[in-house]
Amino acid sequence: MRILAIGLLAALLAGPAGAKAPPPAKPLAPPLRTAEMPAHAAAAKPDAPVNATPALWVVHGPKGIAYLLGSIHALPKNVDWEKPYIKEAARRADTFVFEVKMDSDSLAHDREVLTKEAFLPISESLPSYFDEDMRNQYREVIFLTHADPSAIVYMRPWRASMALEGAADGRNDLIPSEGVDNKIYAEAVARHVKDFRPLEPAEDQFKLFIGDGDMQHEMTALKLTFMKILAHKGEKHPDLVDAWEKGDTKTLAEVSKDQPKDFLEDRNRRWVPEIEAMLKEKHTYFITVGALHLVGPTGVPNLLRAQGYKVDGP
Questions:
Q1: 1, pLDDT greater than 80
Q2: Minimal CA–CA distance to 245: which of 296, 174, 303?
Q3: Which of 57, 80, 130, 288 has its CA 20 to 30 A from that of 302?
Q4: Within 13 Å, how many C-alpha atoms sit on residue 75's CB side?
């Protein structure tokens, strides 16, 4: 799910709170019929551990040093990514920087806001907004992605787009609590680190996901999602998690080319002055942001290089 390498708060919707709306008090328009899903297989053996070596950058400033680690905001349980070079960088850091505030109160508030905006009024259902063409596309998209229509039927279009894009990526083993940001933050708290800084307010990410709240705009975006999924006819994109695990920044950069400018490049350009200001302070920073923010010509490392900073790494 590419958004899980772009926006940290998307992981809040990947968890239990964002999984499904409460059951309605009265029946809604029924979801469209789809091919019957196969029954769950018998309990499988745990997956073998995956050895991951994600890329790490080091930025040298006038007074400060910043380590940059790209995050996947939700990961499978079996990924071993906390390698000695990452642990050593985190050990040296006295200040930890994330996309948004990571304390439990802030994330609980953010989850509440997103969940509240994720679902339609109880008297409405998503297919009731479809014309005949979109209804036919919806059937095919559900068939190709194996997404659960019993959950999607209650979602606002922006949330349905996110769910369907995630299903199209074919990953159903991603767990928010295993995300890199959560792990780094928890370990810093356990070390009694006191200095945590966000690069942007949570409201900026709300706007990315929710937009202006106009249903017609959301339906247009959902139709584009349908078209994108149907264009690939169920073929899988390059596996984002696999590329990250291998430290394959070239594949990550290719994936980043398809992402909206306001999700990646615009935010990167806003973050760079924030990081430059930090580097004028005598601190060692450990900065964790979505992996796609750190790759390609408009990724944070290359934007800092363009400003004359020495940046070690890919």
A1: no
A2: 174
A3: 80
A4: 28
